[in-house]
Structure to design on (685 residues):
C-alpha cells in the first residue's frame, strides 16, 4: 500500500500574490492616515454606507469613512467574535448584521484593527452620518447608534426596494432625496455644493467602476488569473476610494498586471478544472481556508455577485444626481427575486460556470439568496448544480469548517464527474 | 504484495469508526465498528485489525485502503481519501442499482444524496450546523433521560400514540420532553415523538421523490426510524445490509477502483 498524496500547499495552488497589492496597501494607508493629518486642519468627516452617496460627500469636501469596511476588517482579522458580545449586551441581537454588532462592540471597547493596519489612533469621529437603505434596514439602526453617541446628524436616503425594472419615478424619488441632502450637508460643510466638482467626482467613480468591472472580467479567461478571494481584497478601492484618483490609478496598475497574467495563461488555481460562482457574502475570517480548500481540488470561484455589486454602469458626469440615484438603486441586493435570477443566469453564462456556491449568511438575510428557493429554480433552469453552505460574514460561531469541507469536497467531486 | 487481493474501507465518523474488508468482487468478508472516542488514529488501526481478524486476513493481503468520514485525514495507512457523501453513494449503489435517494443519519450529520441510475451522485444536501435530527440528538435524549437507545427504540415501536416534539434545538427538545413527562404524557408516545422529530428534520431538507435508501448508524441502531420513514414517505423505502458501514464499503470500493483522492495531486 502507498499512502495518499498530501494536500497541496498554497504555493502549489496559486500563481502567488498579486504584486499590485503592495500599492493597494500604500494607498489605503494614505487614505486612512488622511483622517488624522500631521499638519493643517482636520478634515470634516462623513460616515457613509458602502453603497451610499459618497460622490456627493466627497464633492462637498468631506473625507468619507465606511463602517462596513471596518466590519469586514474585524471579520478578516477574526476579531469580530471578541467584540460583538458587547453590542449583544446592549440589546443588539446576535441574529442581526454581524458587521453592526462587531463594529459597535469594538467601538464600545475602544478597539480597532485600523491602528495596527494603518497606524491611526482610532476610527475617525464623524461630523455627519449618511446611509442608504438600498442594502438593508440595519444600516439605519447602525448609524443611529453613532448619531446618538456623537450627537451628530444622520441622514438617510430611503430607497425603493425589491426593484424589478427601475422606473423613472423611482429614479426621480431618489435623485430628489440626494438634492435635498446636498442642502443639509452644506450646513455642516459650511459651503454650498460645487456642481463642477460633483461632476468630476462622479466621473472618477465611473472610471473606477469601469476598471473594477474590467478586473472582474478577467475571471472569464480559462484558466482565470484570479479568484473571488483575490477579488475580496482587491475590491477595497472600489468601495472606500470610489470617486478619487488613487482608485483609478490603482485599478489601471492592477489590470495591467492581470493582463500580463492572461497573456501568459497564468492560472490562479493550477490545473483549474472546475469553475464556480460565489453567491452571497464572503466569510471574511475564512478567505484563505476557502481559497486553499477549493484551490487544492482544482476548483476556482471565478465570479461572484458580491464583487460585482460595486460595478456601477450608470454614473454619468453630465447628470450626476439622476445617475447616482440609478446606480445606487439598481444594485443586485435591492432587486426583485425575478430580476436577481435573470442577472444570475447571465453571469453563469458569461463566466461559463460549472457550479454555484450559495453562502447562507446567518446574520445577513438580505445578501443570502438561498432562502426562497432560488438555488433550486436556477439549477432547474440552467442545469448547473448548486451547494448551499451555512456560515456568516463575521460571526464564526455560525460556521462549521469540518462540515463545510465535506460539502465542498463532495460538491467539487460531483462537478468533476459531470465534466 | 503479490498476495494482496483484498481492499478495505475505513469510515472515521464523529460517533463511530467503521471498517470493512472486501474481495475484488466487493463481497464484504470482514467488518468491525468501534466508538470513535478521542483518537481517530488509534481507532482506525483498531477497526481495520478487527475487520481483518473477522476476515482471517493480514494487512499484507490488502492492496488498498480508502478512508472517509470526518476523520478521513487521520487514517495514516489510507491510500485513498474521499468525502463520505461520495462513499455513501457508491456503497449504496453497490446494493441498490437504479435511481435512488440516500438518507444517511449519522452522528453529527444528516445527508440526503441523490444517486443516478448510473451510480453518480448528482445532488446532495447536508443538515445545518445543528444537531437536531442527527444521531447526536438521539444520544443526548437517551443520556438525559437515562434510557438506553435500544429501550427508547423498543418503547417507541410499541407506542400507539405520538407526543410531538416541536423544538428546533436539541437542548430545548430535552427540556420539552421533561415538560411532557411532568404533565403525565405516556412516555412511549413521547419516545415515538422523539423519533418522529428526527424523521421530520430529515424530510424538511429536500423532497424525496425516488426510492429512499436508509443508511447510517442511527438507522442501524434504531429500527423504529425505518418504520417511521415507511409511514411518512410515498416512495419505496429500502434498508441495505449493514447500513452503518455503507460509507466504509464505498471507501473500499473507491480503493478497489483505484480512485485518486479528491484533495491531492495523485
Amino acid at each position: 500500500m502507498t499512502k495518499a498524496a498530501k494536500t497541496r500547499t498554497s504555493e502549489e495552488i496559486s500563481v502567488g500574490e498579486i504584486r499590485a497589492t503592495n500599492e493597494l496597501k500604500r494607498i489605503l494607508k494614505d487614505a486612512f492616515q488622511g483622517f488624522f493629518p500631521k499638519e493643517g486642519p482636520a478634515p470634516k468627516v462623513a460616515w457613509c454606507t458602502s453603497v451610499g452617496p459618497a460622490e456627493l460627500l466627497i464633492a462637498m469636501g468631506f473625507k468619507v469613512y465606511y463602517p462596513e469596511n471596518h466590519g469586514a476588517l474585524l471579520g478578516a482579522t477574526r476579531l469580530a467574535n471578541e467584540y460583538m458580545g458587547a453590542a449583544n449586551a446592549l440589546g443588539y441581537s446576535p441574529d442581526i448584521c454581524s458587521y453592526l454588532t462587531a463594529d459597535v462592540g469594538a467601538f464600545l471597547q475602544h478597539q480597532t484593527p485600523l491602528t495596527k493596519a494603518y497606524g491611526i489612533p482610532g476610527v475617525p469621529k464623524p461630523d455627519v452620518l449618511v446611509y442608504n437603505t438600498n442594502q438593508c434596514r440595519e444600516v439605519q439602526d447602525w448609524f443611529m447608534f453613532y448619531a446618538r453617541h456623537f450627537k451628530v446628524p444622520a441622514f438617510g436616503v430611503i430607497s425603493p426596494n425589491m426593484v424589478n425594472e427601475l422606473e423613472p419615478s423611482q429614479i426621480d424619488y431618489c435623485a430628489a432625496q440626494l438634492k435635498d441632502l446636498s442642502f443639509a450637508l452644506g450646513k455642516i460643510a459650511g459651503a454650498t455644493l460645487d456642481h463642477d466638482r460633483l461632476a468630476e467626482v462622479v466621473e472618477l467613480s465611473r472610471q473606477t467602476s469601469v476598471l473594477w468591472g474590467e478586473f472582474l472580467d478577467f475571471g472569464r479567461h480559462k484558466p482565470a488569473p484570479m479568484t473571488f478571494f483575490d477579488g475580496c481584497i482587491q475590491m477595497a478601492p472600489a468601495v472606500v476610494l470610489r470617486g478619487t484618483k488613487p482608485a483609478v490609478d490603482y485599478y489601471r496598475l492592477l489590470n495591467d498586471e492581470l493582463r500580463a497574467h492572461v497573456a501568459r495563461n497564468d492560472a490562479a488555481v493550477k490545473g483549474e478544472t472546475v469553475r464556480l460562482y460565489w453567491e452571497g457574502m464572503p466569510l471574511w475570517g475564512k478567505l484563505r481556508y476557502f481559497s486553499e480548500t477549493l484551490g487544492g481540488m482544482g476548483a476556482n470561484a471565478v465570479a461572484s455577485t458580491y464583487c460585482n455589486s460595486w460595478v456601477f454602469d450608470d454614473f454619468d458626469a453630465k447628470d450626476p444626481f439622476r445617475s447616482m440615484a440609478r446606480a445606487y438603486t439598481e444594485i443586485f441586493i435591492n432587486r426583485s427575486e425575478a430580476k436577481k435570477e435573470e442577472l444570475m443566469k447571465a453571469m453563469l453564462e458569461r463566466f461559463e460556470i460549472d457550479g454555484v456556491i450559495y453562502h447562507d449568511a446567518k446574520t445577513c438575510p438580505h445578501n443570502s439568496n438561498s432562502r426562497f428557493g432560488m438555488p433550486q429554480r436556477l439549477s432547474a433552469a440552467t442545469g448547473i448544480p448548486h451547494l448551499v453552505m451555512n456560515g456568516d460574514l463575521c460571526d464564526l460561531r455560525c460556521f462549521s469548517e469540518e462540515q463545510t469541507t465535506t460539502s465542498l469536497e463532495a460538491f467539487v467531486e460531483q462537478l468533476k464527474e459531470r465534466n | 504484495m503479490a498476495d494482496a487481493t483484498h481492499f478495505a474501507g475505513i469510515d472515521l465518523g464523529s460517533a463511530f469508526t467503521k471498517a470493512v474488508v472486501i474481495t475484488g468482487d466487493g463481497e464484504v468478508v470482514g467488518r468491525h465498528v468501534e466508538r470513535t472516542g478521542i483518537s481517530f488514529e488509534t481507532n482506525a488501526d483498531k477497526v481495520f485489525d478487527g475487520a481483518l481478524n473477522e476476515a482471517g486476513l493480514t494487512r499484507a493481503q490488502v492492496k488498498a485502503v480508502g478512508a472517509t468520514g470526518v476523520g478521513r485525514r487521520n487514517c495514516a495507512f489510507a491510500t485513498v481519501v474521499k468525502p463520505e457523501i461520495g462513499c455513501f453513494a457508491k456503497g449504496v449503489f453497490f446494493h441498490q442499482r437504479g435511481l435512488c435517494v440516500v438518507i444517511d443519519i449519522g452522528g453529527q450529520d444528516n445527508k440526503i444524496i441523490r444517486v443516478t441510475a448510473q451510480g453518480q451522485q448528482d445532488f446532495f444536501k447536508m443538515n445545518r450546523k445543528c444537531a437536531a435530527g442527527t444521531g447526536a440528538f438521539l444520544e443526548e435524549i437517551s443520556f438525559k433521560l437515562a434510557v438506553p437507545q435500544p429501550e427508547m427504540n423498543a418503547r417507541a415501536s410499541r407506542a400507539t400514540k405520538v407526543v410531538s416534539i416541536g423544538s428546533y434545538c436539541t437542548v430545548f427538545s430535552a427540556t420539552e420532553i421533561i415538560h411532557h413527562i411532568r404533565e403525565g404524557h405516556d412516555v412511549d408516545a413521547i419516545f415515538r415523538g422523539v423519533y418522529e422529530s428526527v424523521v421530520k428534520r430529515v424530510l424538511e431538507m429536500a423532497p424525496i421523490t425516488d426510492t429512499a435508501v436508509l443508511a447510517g448508524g442511527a438507522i442501524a441502531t434504531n429500527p423504529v426510524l425505518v418504520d417511521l420513514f415507511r409511514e411518512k414517505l410515498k416512495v419505496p423505502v429500502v434498508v441495505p445490509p449493514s447500513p452503518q458501514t455503507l460509507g466504509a464499503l464505498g471507501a473500499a470500493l473507491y480503493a478497489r477502483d483505484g480512485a485518486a483522492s479528491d484533495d491531492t495531486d495523485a
